[in-house]
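Pasting two entries for a bug report.
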Amino acid sequence: MNGYKFETASNIVELNTGLQGVIKKIEKEVLKNNISYNQLKYVFRIVRKKCKLEQDKQRKKLYELPTQDEICRFYEGMKNPVYKLLFETLQGTGIRVGELVAIEVSNINLKENTIFIKNGKGGKDRVVVFGNTLKDKLALYLDGHKKNRFLFQSSRNKNYSTRGMQLLCQRYKKIAHIECHFTCHTFRHLFFTNLAHKGISKENRMIIAGHSSEKVQDIYTHLSINGIKDEIIAVLDRIS
């Protein structure tokens, strides 16, 4: 293993040394012509096209999802009902942890079973759907937290941090003796895996996920959350 690391590091140093001349030439031109960051990005994009350079394909990571028994143990270890609802909301909506901690009470529409996600990944807004089981739990929770600005907030009226959520996740992962890779993002994978197993199309899953690909946006602009909401709610109710 040490030999592998040494060889890799040596190759990187050799590569970087060979590029020093190119870097200096680019630096000289940037300073000489007062080229801005966006202009430089544009230049590299054009050069890449003219030289027909393609990005190296990365192997797709296969996620090892926890078993149903492990998920049950994860929740059973929680004595704080708010903590449990935090993760149930992640699992029941498929949202990212950064989106969860930013949800304000005004973003939730219990009547429509929807949450408005503002400034999600890539700065985009979208609407996500949740099932009736989670709806009942959120309604009961909100009834006891009527002064909240954020859906989930501390006693100091501050919303939870993503770091705090990850620490909670790791604490209860350890208590549940879960061996596989397990983070807050695991609940997002669980959500979309369940939708796939229940027959929700890839196109519709991408709408819910808030996929950032421009290609995806171009292809599926004719689709909307309203057209699939009832189907998603029905599926989520069967899962829960």
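Entry 2 (this is the one that rendered wrong in the viewer):
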Amino acid sequence: MVIKKILVFVVPLFISFFKGQINEDSIKAINNLYAQYYTSAVLTMSPTHKWAIISDKNSYGLERAHLVQLQTGKSEDIPLSYNNYFFGDNLLIIQENERTIVKSLKNKNTIQLKGNYLYEAFDKVGKLLFYDRLKKELLLFDSAGNKLRSYEDIESIGKSHEQSQIVFRNSSQTFKFDLKKLELTQWKSEDKVYWQRLLNEDVISLESNGQNYLIRHYGKLNNIKTKILHIQEGFYLDSLSTAKMTLKQNRYLILPLVKKIDKSKVQQSLILYTNQNAYYKTPMSQMAVFDLTESKWKRLPEGSDFFSRQILLDDFGTIMSFDPSVDKIENESNVTHQMTIEKKFGESKIMIDNSHERKQNYYYDGLTNRMIYFQDQKWKIENLNNGLVSEIPFEKPSNFTSWVYNGLSDYSSGNAYSTNKKGFWIISDGYDLFLVDLIHVTAKRLTFGREKDISFSIQEDFRTKYLNESYWDIPKILQVNMNRKLILKAFNTTNYTSGIAELDIKNLRLKMLATLDDVIQEVFVTDENITFTVQSYNQPLSDLNQSPFDFLTAIVWHFGPF
């Protein structure tokens, strides 16, 4: 395959060389030749892998997209957009600038919405929500693409997927809408609203009457309770950063406070020799937590917190905090800081051993209250209950070090994944997977690929990777279900073949499901099938005229059940 690719590039230039010149016609001929070639990629896929959207692009201006039915290989052209979303297997949302298309995959009907709509899918109740901030318009559709409701003059909106309800507001009223029952509740209120969410069956709101910030509860029988929110002295509420406001445990309201700067004092210009990053000039948002049940502040920033950062490690108030603005010499590729762990939103604080802020260097296990982290080219476990640090006893710890920057970056060669079994994690060294017991500090090897030059890896869904629930939350990581067989990607680093493997963790059995000469890229797994794409010089992804099971030509291979 590679030889054919090279010849395509070499032959035209070789001929032109012997002609003694590269003229305008030869350049045009070469451009016309290569304008036929393009790179294909899967943009998104429906939940059951029945449908996929595939794009084709090249450097000669080609940009197009196709809606493909994977079981049959049939495709149709659709607009190439910046965002696509499958609402089940029935609806496709295509978003362009100033236009949103809602396309029925059953009857091929389409609805066009002019404007910049944001959408939110409520899968449990089969409802689809669209909101345009500029037009202040809210639209509600069902899973068949039928418009159920529309509201105008909507200033803000909040949602709860667990309760399948939304809360929104116009200039004079607050509304709660039950998406399952299609029932609307409303309250009269005229103050400025910064943030609103559902709190059990009530609505909780942060508002301002021009003099004070107010916390309001909108309850049953038009019952409204109001409390003044007193802001910590020396700080102000960053009301422009409403996206940073969030609610945890239906009790703790997290707000961004910023340290005030006394602008009345004359600022003297100084020239300093420092290692401090110039980025740290304007104070940054600090986490403040208000207990709605007790009606008091649970956590407030320190008076010296200008640039400190807080990261929520779980939903129960475990916070990792550090100050990245310290003046010191640092390895810029993987910076280190003195880290602190707070429990229950600041009730207790301890210093921890991990010093890296790079998210791939540390993980937190809330069930055992332990940190799993890569530091000094070793994977370690710290028991936060007693401060005991243990090195994970891998047979060859050096295999876990990435040699980016000659190993000086302190990057790990693989990742760590939580499991559904308490205290057990899976850690990769770039070739093999190891099951680690956090409590007893043991490691068991699950695969044996390094000796055969085969790299096994867990495929994460690129659609959800690195997503976090709020500004403060650490991105969620993949959890491996040890009760089910684990699908792995396999890549031979010697002959560059690849495959799909199935790992039975309980019985330590590895079975190859597919092997091919091309390089496997993304792998998508459902309960019914496995779909994956490969990098190949044979044929673009969108050229699916041949059988979808002929993966050497069709490029997208779809099989199941398994």
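Dev reply: Rendering is fixed now. As a check, the viewer should reflect this: The helical segments are 2-19, 24-34, 551-554.
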